[in-house]
Amino acid sequence: MAHDLREQACWITLVFESGLSTRVVNDILVAWCYQGKQDLQAFFAADARQWTEVCNVKPADVQKLERAREKQAAQAFLVEQLAHASISLLTIFDEGYPRLLKNALKRNQTPPVLFYCGDVQILQRQTFAIIGSRNASEQSLAFTREVACYLAEQGANVISGNARGVDQAAYEGAIAGNGCTTVVLPHGIRKLSGARMRGLLSGIEAGKVLLLSQFHPDAPWVVSRAMERNRIVTGLAQIVIVAESDTKGGTWDGANGALAQRRPLYVRQMGPSDLPGNAALLQRGARPLPWPMDDVEHTLLPLLHAGQEIQQKQSTSSSPPSQLSLLASSQF
């Protein structure tokens, strides 16, 4: 266990204390860990010459790594604190790291580390992301709750981004359906408010709620992190559903990102009164979900079948690659 904690401290040091870009960190992981078959404790025990020869680290980045190495003791203390708070660390090494996410992102976008609290096996379920505006209409919120509740009742994992509006409605719907939900945070996992954490705790303890963050545990909310979070929300899902979108902003970017990730995208459709963003997404290739629904099961069952087909293809693919080989083969 001590070895694991020391190695985890090295991961936090490299990913968050070095100041290196995600692309450079992942390049180091490929060269040192995947190709060189050495752990990160050996990396930080090495000298600048080895970093340069094995990982092609540039001089400016060598200096950053040397400064980061001096902070390892503090990271070891942080790892102990996280373990005490039942917060775990998932690295790109781990088989539990979601392949669906890895396949959706390029090397410069793939988080080397994910922090989580709860049952990470929830990510192995059929997954649907529901996204939408913070200031969504009551119709959009009602749509979100109904869809999330039905999907959760059928055993799916409903993913949302922990914001007010549609995100909160998706969480509420999944809980009402007595199902599973993943809450992807736009900040560090220890930055969640005490009140919010207390509200989530019973679901976490029951194995129904998974908290997930790609950021340093103490990283505060900023707009750029919220935008990065959106890629994780859609990348974790087999299918993405839009409740309400404008033609700009986070939901719009997230929905178009889902299309770029080749995720089937469904959008709430109300007819002539459709919101401009919803209508524009339909023109870009999204599929309509009529609202109100005369028959929820008849409308949503095809989505479940589509998600099951995608999931089955993923699980039956021959010789699934390791996480590091996926990382090594990422597109530039």
In short:
This protein is an alpha/beta fold and 332 residues long. It has helices at residues 2-17, 22-35, 40-45, 48-55, 59-69, 72-84, 99-104, 138-153, 166-176, 194-205, 223-235, 250-260, 276-283, 296-316, 323-328; strands spanning 88-91, 113-117, 127-132, 157-160, 180-184, 209-213, 239-244, 265-269, 287-290. The chain is built from 15 helices and 9 strands.
For this entry, give a set of tags.
single chain, about 325 residues, alpha/beta, Rossmann fold, 2 domains, 15 helices, 9 strands, about 50% helix
- Strand sequence of the main sheet, in spatial order? 1-2-6-5-4-3-7-8-9
Task: Give the proportion of residues in helices.
Answer: 40-55%
Task: Give helix and strand order, one letter per element, not per position.
Answer: HHHHHHEHEEHEHEHEHEHEHEHH
Q: Structural class from helices and strands?
A: alpha/beta
Segments where pLDDT lies below 50 for 5+ residues? none
Extended strand count = 9
CA radius of gyration: 20 Å
- Indicate how many domains the architecture comprises: 2
Strand content: 5-15%
Shape: elongated
Name of the CATH first level of the largest domain: Alpha Beta
What is the correct CATH architecture of the largest domain?
3-Layer(aba) Sandwich
Provide a count of the helices.
15
The name CATH uses for the topology of the largest domain is Rossmann fold
Mean pLDDT: 92
Instruction: Tell me the major beta sheet.
Output: 9 strands, mixed
- Distance, first to last CA: 36 Å
